[in-house]
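Technical annex, item 7. During the second reporting period the consortium partners agreed on a shared format for inverse folding records so that results from different sites could be compared directly. Each record opens with the tokenized structure and is followed by the designed sequence. A conforming record, contributed by the partner at site C, is shown below for reference.
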């Protein structure tokens, strides 16, 4: 039986393991120039999205990225990255149609217990694929963040020091500790839970998780989350509370038009000025407050809000970021 796909747990500020695959396992990089362009775009998207990247690897037909999302979560960042890259790749290679599997996979992770294990898991991809065979060779593999952690390459958007700090000691000692940690991983068996949740698949989906929680089963599990029962429980509770708040506002009949009206009235400005792209400071501030309320109270995406406010999606994202600062 076909199971309906689950909503992503797009919690801002959380650690996410993202996996992107080519459609039908086809290659998504034709050569090194493609990989360079993908990396450039990844860098600009995570910087603009206020994200922190800890690990990444580019393989011929798939990509892994481990990052903490910014205030807007992961969806807008990934959409900007993948839409742009697919258009670039199709244009360059004279092809058409989908490049990626319909949905990238994202697993929300318990940072305290899994960050280092995931950094190692992601950076060991070329070893598991038999592309490199020794820790020395891995240090020369260009298309992963491993070289950056070793200090052999530099990506300003990568949080190398946050990884190394977990190994203690001076710079050189922490790099040596990290290298030993990765080398130990080469001797270990492949751990499939790293790419699909910790207490995974034991309950078979969202509805079963909710049912188990209602029966008082504390050891919740969800294939979109990598962590122990308490961590899974906390994430699900936060997600459920946010969904309930949004549902309550929707049931009350609140719409984005109402929010626009309320905020314009408070600011003493006309609705037309807010939706016509005017840039006066008071208008911009009001627009930003409308965007925040629409996201938090109605669960609307930046693109939906942008349509109602007559501005670009990126302008909505920036406006929300300014308010939250």
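Designed sequence (site C submission):
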């Amino acid at each position: 039986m076909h199971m309906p796909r689950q909503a992503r747990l797009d919690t801002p500020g959380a650690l996410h393991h993202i996996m992107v695959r080519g459609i039908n396992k086809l290659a998504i990089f034709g050569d090194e120039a493609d990989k360079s362009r993908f990396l450039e775009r990844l860098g600009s998207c995570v910087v603009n999205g206020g994200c922190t990247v800890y690990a990444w690897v580019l393989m011929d037909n798939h990509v892994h990225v481990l990052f903490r999302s910014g205030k807007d979560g992961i969806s807008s960042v990934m959409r900007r990255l993948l839409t742009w890259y697919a258009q670039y790749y199709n244009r360059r290679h004279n092809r058409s149609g989908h490049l990626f599997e319909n949905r990238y996979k994202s697993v929300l992770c318990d940072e305290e217990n899994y960050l280092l294990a995931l950094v190692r898991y992601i950076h060991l991809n070329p070893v598991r694929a038999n592309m490199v065979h020794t820790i020395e060779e891995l240090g020369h593999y260009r298309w992963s963040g491993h070289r950056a952690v070793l200090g052999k390459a530099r990506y300003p958007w990568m949080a190398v020091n946050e990884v190394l700090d977990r190994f203690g000691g001076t710079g050189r000692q922490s790099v040596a500790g990290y290298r030993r940690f990765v080398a130990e991983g080469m001797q270990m068996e492949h751990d499939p839970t790293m790419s699909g949740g910790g207490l995974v698949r034991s309950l078979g989906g969202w509805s079963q998780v909710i049912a188990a929680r209602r029966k008082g089963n504390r050891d919740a599990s969800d294939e979109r989350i990598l962590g122990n029962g308490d961590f899974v429980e906390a994430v699900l509770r936060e997600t459920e509370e946010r969904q309930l708040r949004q549902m309550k506002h929707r049931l009350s009949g609140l719409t984005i038009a109402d929010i626009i009206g309320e905020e314009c009235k408070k600011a003493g400005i006309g609705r037309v000025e807010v939706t016509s792209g005017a840039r006066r400071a008071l208008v911009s501030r009001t627009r930003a407050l409308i965007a925040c309320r629409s996201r938090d109270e109605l669960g609307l995406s930046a693109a939906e809000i942008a349509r109602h406010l007559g501005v670009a999606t990126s302008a909505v994202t920036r406006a929300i970021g300014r308010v939250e600062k």
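Strands lie at 15-21, 52-58, 62-68, 105-109, 225-226. DSSP finds 15 helices and five strands in the chain. All partners now use this format for quarterly exchanges.
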